[in-house]
Amino acid sequence: QVQLVESGGGLVQPGGSLRLSCVVSGSFFRDSAMGWYRQAPGKPRLLYAGITSDGRSNTADSVKGRFTIFRDNDKNTLSLQMNNLKPEDTAVYYCNSVPPKIGWGQGTPVTVSS
Fold first, then answer.
1. C-alpha count within 13 angstroms, C-beta hemisphere, residue 52
2. In this predicted model, which residue has the larger pLDDT, 26 or 95?
3. β-pair partners for 82
4. HSE (CB half, 13 Å, CA atoms) of 18?
5. Rounded distance, CA 76 to CA 64, Å?
6. Rounded to whole angstroms, how far apart are CA atoms 98 and 114?
7. Is 69 helix (H, G, I), strand (E, B) or coil?
8. pLDDT tens across 7-27, in order?
9. 112 by DSSP, 3-state: which?
10. DSSP string, 6-52
11. DSSP single-letter state for residue 114
């Protein structure tokens, strides 16, 4: 059974940085497009950054130039480097395949506040 374990969230001031990590158990990861989703309070869970199995990536316009998604297929790890964070980035961040096919993990909360 594939499992997702996200980590790296926390409280950060506007303009700060965080790096999120997601460890994916099993052999599913290597051949799958993966992504980072986020869900702000009262809003739907949406995809904000995606990366194909061979490393081509894309990000939503609202985070383009600030967020970078990358993967390590040898370590079954998906990462999200977030720079110049803004209060509107506050959300719980989840990883999953694109489209989502795995049971959701607990996510990692990110709070951007002064």
1. 5
2. 95
3. 18, 67
4. 20
5. 24
6. 33
7. strand
8. 999 999 999 999 999 999 988
9. strand
10. EE--EEE-TT--EEEEEEE-SSTGGGS-EEEEEE-TTS--EEEEEE-
11. -
- Tell me the average pLDDT across 44-70: 97
Looking at every residue in the chain, the average pLDDT score rounds to 96
Determine the average pLDDT of the residues in 42-68. 97
Q: Please give the Cα distance from 70 to 72 (Å, whole number).
A: 7
For the chain, the maximum distance between any two Cα atoms, rounded to a whole number of angstroms, is 41
Among 23, 20, 54, smallest CA distance to 38 is for 20
Confidence of residue 1 (pLDDT cuts 50, 70, 90): confident
Which amino acid appears at position 113 of this protein? Answer: S
What pLDDT shows up at residue 83? 98
pLDDT at residue 112 in the model: 98
Tokens for 40? 């702000």
- The per-residue pLDDT for 27 is 80
Residues in the chain: 114
Please give the angle made by the CA atoms of 98, 81 and 94, to the nearest 5 degrees.
Answer: 40
Three-state secondary-structure class, residue 92: strand
